[in-house]
Known about the structure:
By secondary structure, this protein is mainly α. The protein is built from 6 helices and no strands. Helix 1 (6-53) runs antiparallel to helix 2 and helix 1 (6-53) runs antiparallel to helix 3. Residues 1-5 and 187-198 have low confidence and may be disordered.
Amino acid sequence: MATRTTRNAWAELESRLEGFEAAKRAVVEVGARRGAAQRAVAAAEARLRAVYVEIDEEPAAIAEARAALTEARAEAEPAVWEGRLQGAQDVADRTGSELEDHVRANLEGLVAELVPTSEAARQRLEAAWGETQASVAEWDAIERRWRRLCELLGREVDTPDNPLAPVLLAAQAAGARAPRPFASPSSPGLESSAARKR
């Protein structure tokens, strides 16, 4: 398969990914509709039981309840929903396989476009990380001076909160550090369709 231009490869990748996500949603939707049909059967059975609970059994009410139950059972026919579910799953499997094939066939071009933008983003994030640490440290130093001044004057200490302090503390506690460069993925390392299904 010939490698497409990078721009077209990324456009098709996004399109295929949307199709794959839609196919997965369709599987879930079919399962939900099947569940609703099964619940409708249970509700129709409950209505029929309720009709027979009455001492004076009304023929019209019985006929209506029986008809509703027959219709609900037909709608919930297991073979029908098993077929629908299998069909939806087949589409999801096929679109997932096609998506993986597209990524493998166009991996070089896709990665080539990401390298410069990811490195630029990493450098910006690294600079922002350093600036965040420096600004928080500067803020803390100024806050300590304000506190000292207020205490010397016998006044209540009321300094504004630093909104970045909790974020930085949490990041440092988690061992966060400046971002490393992105590692280029290799084709054998891509997740397989079989792995996605598990």
